[in-house]
Amino acid sequence: MSMRSKFTYLHLTKNFSYFKKLGIKGPKPVIIFGNLLDLLFVSKPDLEVKRLKQFGTIYGIFEGNKPLIQVAEPELIKQILVTDFRLFNTKVRITNIGHPVIERMLVSVRGDAWRRTRTAVSPAFAIGRMRRQYAQIRHCVGAQLVNQLQTCANNCAPVDVKRMYGCFTLSAMTWCAFGARTDPYRDFGHPFVANAWPVFKLPLWKLLALQVLPRFVLRVLRLNSLFNEKCIANITQTILKIMRAKESAGDKSDDFINVVMNSKLGPNEELPDDNNPDDEENLVMRSKTDDNIGTKKSLTEEEIVAQGFIFFTAAFDQMANLLSFITYELALKPEAQDRLYEEIAAAVDADGEIGYNELSRLPYMDAVVNETLRLHAAPVKLRRTPGRDFPLGDTGIVVPRGQPLEIPIYAIHHSDKFYPNADQFIPDRFLPENRHNLKPYTFMPFSTGPRVCVGKPFALMEAKLALVHVLRRFRFAAHKDTKVPPIVKTHPMMKSLESLYISVEARD
Ligand code: HEM
To answer: Per the database entry, which stretches of residues form a coiled coil (predicted)?
Structure first.
């Protein structure tokens, strides 16, 4: 090896002794890619499960040459997400570069900017609004989803449930979030429909490039997001058009974007002086009482559009994943499907309807949804950065300030240490009489603490309402084309399906 290549090699691997110095175990990294190439052989969720088994509850991996500490100890998770939340309210990019829309979404912002954004977004999920959206979702289930399933049942054809539920969650989302009525089963030209599926296309080369190449190269290549950049632009332009039309019409309706628009800055108002995302000095969030900067209800137009984009992606794709995985588990476990059917049949009125309150009082439904979220939680990990040096309990390991760490929620959900027969679908673990067996901070499909998923009540309501009306009418079963286990897409943080074929038949 020449002196020059030896120097380059040493430069590119200089971080690789990082975990050794901290006394942390982990898989051996390779030059340039770190541990990223493992994704070529195993899906991200399976990889995380394997690593937790192999290295225990604290270990380290490399994304390129960037070290990431993994923490799967429930007590430490409580500290990170709840007790010392202010110290950790610092999200870190998953990629080496940021996209202006993605960086402004509630899920990405940090510190005082997060508090300002969360204050503006939370009222959109108030219970009164949720009750009104119940009727809209009920309409989408009846007019679209059930009709489409009936056609598939009549034709005796297996159904791609990911696509089928995707059309439903897209139409429910565009109505509830933007007041826009769409029919994704037919109206392929609507910009929300045309861009909904392609926005999630993430080729492996792009994923590796975003995590390995330096920022200036990514800028030249115009790569800046795990989402498809052109589709982000099309979706956000459509959101902006809707917002402007609402403004000029004086629209006071109740959809998510209208509520968030209530926080829009006036023409002469300025953005509060909260932290700059690149200000590495200010990693700890100020306390609520320090001043009122973080609590002002004021967002710019760009920030509001970004909240529209997170609603779009979460309420479309994550919801379609959840419904598809539930259907898959019930197709494989007919006795669980029958038991849930009996519960639903006993709860609906003579017209087959169920009220908002009654929907949340179905214990077996709740157990089935939770057990599916345990087995197939969409976000595989949470990523945080400590604003101060952070001792990892009594391990003697101190995570340096600014060093990103990750909570591998998916792997925790799959650990036999916390869930006996962890890879099996056993809804009974979540029944009220068994819940005392669950260890706190080992079930976090929606995260926990102040940054818990703001859309959780909406997500649960929509999923349960759809299931009541679908399972009341149809029975699902595995088909020869049903992949067991299902094939998931390549993504650094999410478990998501491309397609999933299942047989459907009408109950009568
Ligand atoms: C099955 C459905 C869903 C799951 C499993 C889920 C899960 C999560 C998780 C784990 C987080 C925390 C991420 C982190 O801290 O890194 C989160 C945050 C968030 N979710 Fe969801 N989510 C779902 C549906 C939704 C829906 C339907 C919406 C909106 C309509 C939504 C909006 C958000 C937002 C805005 C945040 C950021 C909260 C914050 O940082 O303050 N989610 N979600």
So the answer is: none
